[in-house]
Specification:
Elements: H1 2-14, E1 20-24, H2 34-48, E2 52-55, H3 61-71, E3 76-81, E4 95-99, H4 102-111, E5 116-118, H5 123-137, E6 146-149, H6 151-166, H7 173-178, E7 179-182, H8 184-202, H9 206-221
Parallel strand pairs: 1-2, 1-5, 2-3, 3-4, 5-6, 6-7
This protein binds N-(3-methylbut-2-en-1-yl)adenosine 5'-(dihydrogen phosphate) (ZJS).
């Protein structure tokens, strides 16, 4: 019951959200780390392109993206998680809620956004990135660009996916190529823009359908 009500709360909180992009990344990046500034730039660039920014609402890269989004006057969403060591939502979140369950929260990230920008991070970031990739690979989610920012950080992972996963037949070449690696906010935005435009072209009613689906879900669960 608790799980169900958390899904409902999450769906209701974001039902009216327009086009949005998730930003995942390390909770541990310090504000003076250059990676923090990349997060700020990503948040700002997404808002300037017309997207709401959705993060885990915590510190580090999440805070950076929320800061950029908020400072650009956009919708800055934080889907927080209740943890034993309470950190709370960062101060740049304009729309926030806290989840008890990571898996509910992960569903909400992918369901209510049209793509993901992934900044360098640890297991939490990898979990979110692979969740999104699994849903795309299995076509549970379509037209969902995933862009990894920071070639030096991400190339070794993609290399391992090619050399080990692909060569042993555990993954398709297309799945590896789905992960676009870029450097910096401008390149990340260019890819998201291109992918979003392609999605709209493939299905011009895409955004409208996403909206309608969200409203249906909300009605079905209320
Ligand atoms: C300093 C610290 C560990 C704070 C934890 N506070 C957190 N607050 C919100 N989301 C989080 C937190 N830790 C991990 N996550 C989730 O996992 C990702 C970061 O995990 P990591 O630091 O890469 O592995 C984020 O995208 C976020 O969605």
């Amino acid at each position: 019951m608790r799980i169900q009500s958390e899904f409902i709360r999450g769906f209701s909180a974001l039902a009216e959200l327009g086009p949005a992009i998730s930003v995942f990344g390390s909770a541990r990046v310090a504000t003076d780390d250059p990676a923090y500034q990349v997060g700020v730039d990503v948040g700002r660039a997404l808002v300037e392109e017309g997207f709401a920014v959705v993060t885990g609402g915590g510190p580090g890269a999440m805070e950076a993206a929320n800061k950029g989004a908020r400072e650009a006057g956009g919708v800055s969403v934080g889907l927080g998680i209740e943890l034993p060591f309470e950190t709370g939502l960062n101060p740049y979140v304009t729309t926030g809620m806290n989840f008890r369950y990571f898996f509910v929260r992960k569903t909400v990230f992918v369901k209510y956004t049209q793509g993901a920008v992934v900044l360098p991070g640890g297991v939490g970031t990898l979990d979110e990135m692979f969740e999104a990739l699994t849903l795309v690979q299995t076509q549970k989610v379509n037209h969902y660009p995933i862009v990894l920012v920071g070639a030096d950080f991400w190339e070794p992972l993609r290399g391992w996916m090619r050399e080990t996963l692909l060569s042993r037949g555990m993954i398709a070449a297309a799945d590896v190529e789905r992960l676009r690696i870029v450097d910096g906010a401008d390149e990340a935005l260019a890819f998201i823009r291109e992918a979003h435009a392609a999605a709209l072209e493939a299905d011009p009613e895409d955004v409208a359908k996403v909206r309608a689906q969200q409203l249906n879900d909300q009605e079905a669960t209320s």
